[in-house]
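Hi,

Apologies if this is the wrong queue. I'm a grad student, and the batch job for NADPH-dependent FMN reductase from Halorhabdus utahensis produced an output file that my downstream script rejects. I'm not sure whether the problem is my script or the file. Here is the sequence I used:
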Amino acid sequence: MSETRVVAICGSLRDNSHTRKSLRIALEAAENAGASTELLDLREWELPVFDADRGDAGDAEAFRERVRAADSVILGTPVYHGSFSAPLKNALDYCGFDEFEDTTIGLLAVAGGRFPITALEQLRTVSRALDAWVIPHQVAIPRASSAYEDGKLVDDELREMIEVLGAEAVQYAHIEPDPASFESGENVGADD
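Support response: The file is valid. Your script probably expects a header line. Output copied below for reference.
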C-alpha cells in the first residue's frame, strides 16, 4: 500500500486563525501516525465565487487535483452565524464526487462563542452528499480565544481531541466505505 496522504482544508482567511493553528496540530498528529500531509490554506488559492459555467476558473483544477490525491481530508472551519465559512463552501463547490467519493473526511470547527456543533452537522451532511466517509470523532472548539494564548493551544483536552482526529484520519484513510448514501443520490450538482 502506498503512503497515506492527509490534506487539511482551512476555511478561515484570518491571518491569526485558530482554525489554521488547530489544523496544523491535526496534521502533525497525522504525520506522527505515518502520513504525508498538506495544508490547503484557502488564502493562497484563487477560487472566485463558484459559477457552474466557469468551473475551471482560477486555481480550481490544481485545487481539485490536490484534494483528489488525498486519502483523507480534514475540513476546518470557523463558525459564522451558526454555519461553516463561505470560503470553505466555495472551495467545496469546486469539488464533487471525483474528489470526495470514498474519501475519509475529518471535521473540525472553531467558534468564538459556545456552540460550534451546527457547522459540524452541516459539513457532515455535505460530506455524505459527496459519498465521503466521515470519521465519527469530530472536534468542536468553543470560545477559541480562551483555548489559545499567545498563539499556542493551552487546553490539553482540546489538544488531545485534535490529535485523535489527525491520527484517525490516517487510521481510517483506507476504510471500505458503505454503499452510496441516500444524500448522494439526490445530489445532482449544478445541472439546473
